[in-house]
């Protein structure tokens, strides 16, 4: 489970070291330190462990019950209407948040356009072109310049779909 909070970014998984426990992993030690500061009662006896050879260098191991309490407390402490702004005000580097937002926004656009495609365009014609930027297939004809609904741009080049 990936969790983004005002304290940082975490990946919570079953521990690979302590059977039946949760490991909360982070890319930076600071994120775990900030989590411990935000949850002093819940994480008072926790220790940050460094694992230099692992995918996530820093981690805290705890029982599932303790992790549940941490998640409840974090949910209770939501005091913002814009998460990315709250992270910026908390002093976090928000570039990764914007990257995730952009990626997930693209997923939403693809989903919305898939529905639009299925409802409106697919019954009319087979897609003929592929956007060179996002690889989305779309319909085109000689009367209109190629337009990619995902990128929201007219394209000067296109790849014809292989039959």
Give an overview in words.
The longest helix has 27 residues, at 95-121. The relative contact order is 0.10. This protein has a five-stranded antiparallel β-sheet with strand order 1-2-3-5-4. Strands 7-6-10 form a three-stranded antiparallel β-sheet, with no helix packed on it. The radius of gyration is 23 Å and the shape is elongated. The chain contains four helices and ten strands. The chain folds into two domains: 2-92, Alpha-Beta Plaits (2-Layer Sandwich); 98-160, no CATH class. The chain is an alpha+beta fold.
Low-confidence stretches: 121-125
Please tell me the total number of domains. Answer: 2
Please state the CA-atom Rg, rounded to the nearest Å: 23 Å
Multimeric status of the protein: single chain
CATH topology group of the largest domain: Alpha-Beta Plaits
Which of globular, elongated, flat, extended, rod-shaped describes the shape? elongated
Count helical runs. Answer: 4
- With strands numbered from the N-terminus, the spatial order across the biggest sheet is 1-2-3-5-4
Major sheet size, sense and barrel closure: 5 strands, antiparallel
CATH architecture of the largest domain: 2-Layer Sandwich
Features:
alpha+beta; 163 residues; 2 domains
Brief overview:
This protein is of the alpha+beta class. The chain is 35% helix and 19% strand.
Topology, pairings included?
Layout: E1 2-4, E2 9-14, E3 22-26, H1 29-38, E4 49-50, E5 58-62, H2 64-76, H3 83-89, H4 95-121, E6 129-130, E7 137-138, E8 147-148, E9 153-154, E10 159-160
Antiparallel strand pairs: 1-2, 2-3, 3-5, 4-5, 6-7, 6-10, 8-9
């Amino acid at each position: 489970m990936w969790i983004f909070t005002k304290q940082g970014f975490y990946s919570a998984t079953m521990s690979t070291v302590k059977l039946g426990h949760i490991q909360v992993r982070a890319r930076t030690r600071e994120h775990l330190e900030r989590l411990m500061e935000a949850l002093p009662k819940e994480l008072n006896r926790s220790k940050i462990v460094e694992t230099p050879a692992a995918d996530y260098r820093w981690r805290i191991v705890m029982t599932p019950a303790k992790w549940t309490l941490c998640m409840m407390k974090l949910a209770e402490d939501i005091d913002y209407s814009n998460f990315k702004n709250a992270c910026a005000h908390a002093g976090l580097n928000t570039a990764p948040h914007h990257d995730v937002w952009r990626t997930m926004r693209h997923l939403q656009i693809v989903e919305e356009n898939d529905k639009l495609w299925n409802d409106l365009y697919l019954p009319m014609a087979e897609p003929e072109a592929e956007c060179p930027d996002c690889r989305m297939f779309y319909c085109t004809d000689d009367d209109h310049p190629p337009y990619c609904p995902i990128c929201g741009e007219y394209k000067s080049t296109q790849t014809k779909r292989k039959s």
